[in-house]
Design a protein that fits this description.
360 residues
Length: 360
């Protein structure tokens, strides 16, 4: 974002928590009746770091004669969906209510991120410790067993040979898991960006975990329904609202389907005919989108859907936090038992058998 008002341009992408804080400041200033441009400059001077730079730059742009909508358009790191809601609120003359609705949606996205983090934290710690222990065994313990067998001229058990080869090649496969953890950490750090309200790409790898995919699908469907209801409530055209809500959902398939439907509606096709062939949306949402406009209660129906999908996603998150660690512990327990047998029992039994056998 370039500051035409003379301030230093902010650096880096705005974080989701910063966007929520900025939104809350704008709502408070608007409701108080204080001139928005002056309030933003004063608030920005009091805030530290990135959020202060963003707030000050917006205020100075507005002092130079730009509207809030125009000032936000120059902010490349502010999600387009935020600018669309601001435009809708200004057109309707009810900006605070529109921004409060968007704050609820953004906090829902932040809640989804927190749910995923809490659900995966303990399992990742357990798996990391187990992997580290396995690497230690095959690189430190197994070579000593092999030395004993070779020094005594005994035949080496196949399991011991296999583990020995794994230990010798640990320099190749050993770093794979730490690298994967670093990649996940980087993606998790990047998921703080407010631009992820426009894209869920940072969460792509997390879908591989059990129950995470269904949990994320629930949060994404809830976000889509919530935002679409908000945009429609403030008279954003249906086709544009579909496109913005789909892009902001976090689901690439849902975003693609929304754009396809948006283009079809703009060509004059009725929503029920368009939705008939779509499979990107959950069945109930597909029915609501197809019949809601004709019934005139689409906003209410979408908000009910959002609550339903969010409740289901939170249930999946609770199940993930409770069951996944238990399943992982059971798997690790079984693996540890088999590993102990592989590492200790078979080699030792082979050693005792050969030592107690007849001399050749």
């Amino acid at each position: 974002m370039t500051d035409h008002g003379g301030g230093r341009p902010p650096r880096g992408a705005i974080r989701l928590d910063q966007l929520i804080a900025l939104n809350d400041e704008i709502v408070a200033l608007t409701r108080s009746g204080m001139p928005l441009e002056r309030g933003l400059v004063q608030t920005g001077n009091e805030l530290q770091g990135r959020l202060g730079e963003i707030t000050t730059a917006l205020g100075k742009r507005m002092e130079a004669g730009e509207s809030l909508s125009e000032a936000l358009k120059s902010a490349a790191d502010v999600p387009p969906v935020y600018r669309a809601v601001v435009d809708a609120g200004l057109r309707s003359g009810n900006l605070p209510t529109a921004l409060e609705g968007l704050a609820t949606y953004a906090k829902g996205y932040a809640d989804a991120r927190e749910q995923i983090g809490l659900a995966l934290c303990y399992p990742l710690i357990v798996v990391t410790l187990a992997f580290g222990l396995f690497v230690f065994i095959v690189t430190t313990v197994i070579p000593k067993f092999l030395e004993v067998f070779l020094s005594l001229g005994l035949s080496v058990h196949w399991a011991l040979k296999l583990l020995g080869r794994l230990g010798e090649s640990a320099w190749y496969w050993g770093p794979a898991f730490p690298v994967l953890l670093v990649v996940l950490a980087v993606l998790w750090f990047r998921s703080r960006s407010a631009l992820n309200l426009q894209s869920g790409r940072s969460f792509g790898l997390l879908r591989a975990f059990p129950w995470v995919g269904s949990m994320m699908a629930g949060f994404e469907a809830s976000s889509f329904a919530d935002l679409l209801a908000l945009l429609l409530e403030f008279n954003v055209p249906y086709s544009e609202a579909l496109r913005l809500a789909g892009d902001a959902s976090g689901d690439a398939v849902l975003a693609w389907g929304s754009r396809e439907i948006s283009e079809s509606v703009e060509r004059g096709l009725p929503p029920d005919e368009v939705m008939r062939a779509r499979r990107e949306f959950p069945p109930l949402m597909r029915w609501v989108l197809a019949t809601g406009p004709a019934q005139g209660d689409l906003v209410v129906a979408l908000r009910q859907l959002a609550r339903r999908y969010r409740a289901r996603a939170r249930y999946q998150g609770e199940k993930l936090r409770v069951l996944l660690p238990t399943i992982l512990l059971l798997m690790l327990g079984v693996s540890a038992t088999l590993g102990y047998a592989l590492v200790v029992f078979f080699p030792l039994s082979s050693l005792y058998e050969q030592l107690s056998g007849p001399l050749h």
